[in-house]
Amino acid sequence: MSQINTRRDFLRDLGLSAAALPFITNLPCLAAPHAEKRKQRLVILFSPDGIVPNTFWPDEEGEAFKLKETLKPLEPFQNKTLILKGVADRIRGDGDGHMRGIGCLLTGIELFPGNIQGGSDTPAGWSSGISIDQEITNFFQKDPASRTRFGSLEFGVMVPERADTWTRMSYAGPNKPLAPIDSPYQMFNKLYGRMKDQESLKSVMDDLKGDLDKIRKSVGVQDRRILDEHTTLVREMEKEMRSAKNRDMGHAIPVLEAGVRADNDNIPQISKQQIDLMVSSFAGDFARVATLQYTNSVGQARMKWLGINEGQHDLSHEPDSNKDAQAKLTKINQWYCSQLAYLAKRLSETPEPNGTGSLLDNTLLVWTNELGQGNSHTLNNIPFVLVGNGLGFKMGRALKYSNVPHNRLLMAFAHGAGHPIKHFGNPDYCGEGLLPNLT
Asked: Over 80: is that where the pLDDT of 23 sits?
């Protein structure tokens, strides 16, 4: 009997509603025959405006390295961390450094000519190629063993509503930018369905209680544990959404000018919600690839919760001699690193649904940036910090290269996912093969 028929019979025999399906498809007892194959996931986190080199890059090379101030939040995961210095975005052409920084970051190929003007540089448009996250997504989706409901999920935190080269890093193909979902509530609805009545929101768990009770009585201990862990976050998120809605009742909702966001001070809360939703989506095997984009290239977040009132982009233009600005930029990037660490922690605490290790054991997190340093707008030494073990790289090291094209790293991501492409992006930067010394 086919696995599809087995699931249908299971639902029919227990009298379950279709609403219960997203909560049970990852249970081992219902796993398809190919489910024993190791799952692999890739997550790419983006933060803008470069880093402060002397508080970021380890002095040492190899396994005996010390984390500088910016990367201190990763100390619990140092043996699962790989830091790559000397990887450069060598793509040139139209667009300013910020535009090429984000638009070529995951595509490894030039921007199309266009009408978006950046500084004194020539105007540009969208990227002329697919991004590596989508290349790997397409590869996974072609195989029934790795195909998922969504393929990939694009999360955002305070990404401006406008659509231009500075606000997009993922591309489904040439001239096909993908907009991240900036609202946790919209992402929740995408993952778990839109609620019919926001004014009198009922608990999804209450609606499904009868079905879930039936399922729990019909599966083993391991499945019950996974089912409970997977649905706990859904209930918590729903309560939070109801609470937020109740706070809004009786108050007019302002119509905001596009691109001017009123939630700057809520960035930490939004980040946590998005990360929690991403972990939940992986536990449900809704996707194997995800991106998490903080603001945008030329991002101007004001991290008042850190005691910093200046905009991030403004600070990034200050010279190295401005020690106060450098200290604030270090603090800002340390906060971004703390979000990476929180995601790693959540993944490490969440068992892999097939019972083998944690989600982090099968997920590679990649934290990167559009610039190496903000005040010089350099595309050399683009930060690449990797955490986890999703693609089989040898972790627990700090490596140094000599201005190697980042296309070679993008190719290595594909090969690690089992997709042995010959080149990626501009083939002129792929001739020497994969970035060496990763495995």
From this structure: no
